[in-house]
Design brief:
Structural class: alpha/beta
Distance between the termini: 55 Å
Shape: globular
Strand order of the largest sheet: 3-4-5-6-7-8-9-10
Radius of gyration: 19 Å
Helix content: 40-55%
Strand content: 5-15%
Number of helices: 16
Length: about 350
């Protein structure tokens, strides 16, 4: 929604920045995760040099240095724009994939984010709009504009009915979203990625998306930023009891990866939802994912509580993630991600 000047109304900007602040409040701890119950095999005879371990991967036609994606988290305000600029530049330098937060606010306000592509001309950059917006009047055109504005390598459609039903300003009509996704796959020249935002995608939904031609899936399960809780906290005290039973709805990542892989064996699966380090990414690869996605952990590295940005700290964190993934593979006796998957197949017989 825009006002009569064509700009995003102040309440929308305030909501977006409130989201950032409430999300940061959840980032001060590294709680237990469903991946903690997963153990990679340890080999005392790896017969490898760690320098030989290859963690490069292909994604949306790009050759990336590691199976890491900075997943979309914010957009539509001056603060969010500054965060996205640093995230995009860091992703290009590290040669990993990056997804933006929703582009809806900027597109509807007539504000271009094309500067992001100028800042990172070689980045594997993925745009983003919401599923409910895609199904609305002119939603397909909005999606096409999102791709064109940043010259995106792909477009993410986020599914967040849990967040929206609790959000005071949320979209409550989700009819036609599945059909619109299929129409978009036919219209776009670039890949369509479908993602949740923290409650996860069931195997049944992954199968339905595959039937619409979607090949790229970001599971975005429980364990990371809890957007249902964030919207619950934004509700009035008299309404909070209505939504309190629903704030822990969703799927655990360790379970969802295997279910999605079994449902659609050839899907490109991004595992996200509270990943904390490179070992979590390696465990996700072991379970069947193609990449690991992180949002909150990246924001925590980039932005301090006082909103000071530290791009050098983010760069160091990305380097550490790569080292951790390489170390996990080395200790498993795997020279590559493909080799890790072969070890799993052999051990599961």
């Amino acid at each position: 929604m825009t006002d009569n000047t064509g700009h995003t109304p102040p309440d929308t900007s305030a909501r977006k920045d409130a989201h950032l602040d409430l999300a940061r409040a959840q980032m001060n701890e590294m709680p237990a995760h469903s991946l903690d119950r997963i153990a990679l095999p340890y080999t005392a005879l790896p017969e490898l040099s760690i320098d030989e371990v290859d963690i490069t991967t292909s994604f949306m036609g790009a050759s990336l240095s590691a199976p890491i994606m900075i997943t979309g988290m914010t957009g539509g305000t001056a603060r969010a724009d500054a965060i996205n600029e640093h995230l995009v530049m860091a992703a290009e330098t590290a040669n990993i994939a990056i997804g933006l937060g929703s582009q809806r606010a900027s597109l509807e306000a007539g504000t271009s984010q094309s500067n992001l592509r100028k800042l990172a001309p070689k980045a594997c950059l993925i745009g983003n709009i919401g599923g409910a917006q895609l199904a609305s009047t002119n939603g397909i055109e909005l999606a096409i504009r999102a791709v064109e504005d940043i010259e995106a390598d792909g477009l993410a459609i986020h599914l967040n009915p849990l967040q929206e039903i609790i959000q005071p300003e949320g979209d409550h009509d989700w009819r036609g979203v599945e059909r619109a996704i299929g129409m978009l796959v036919d219209r776009l020249d670039c890949p369509v990625l479908v993602k949740e935002v923290g409650a996860g995608l069931s195997a049944e939904v992954v199968g339905r998306l595959a039937a619409q031609g979607v090949r790229y899936i970001d599971l975005a399960c429980k364990g990371g930023t809890n957007w249902a809780l964030i919207e619950y906290l934004r509700q009035s005290p008299e309404n909070q009891p209505v939504y309190a039973p629903f704030i822990d709805t969703g799927y655990a990542l360790a379970d969802a990866i295997g279910a999605a892989r079994e449902s659609v064996p050839d899907a490109v699966i991004i595992a996200s939802g509270g990943l904390r380090h490179g070992l979590d990414i390696a465990k996700s690869l072991w379970l069947g994912a193609n990449m690991g996605g992180m949002a909150g952990a990246m924001l925590r590295q980039l932005e301090d509580d006082d909103k000071t940005l530290h791009p050098e700290r983010l760069a160091s964190a990305l380097d550490m993630l790569k080292t951790q993934i390489r170390t996990a593979l080395f200790l498993s006796g795997a020279s590559s991600v493909t080799a890790l998957k072969r070890i799993r197949t052999r051990l599961s017989r």
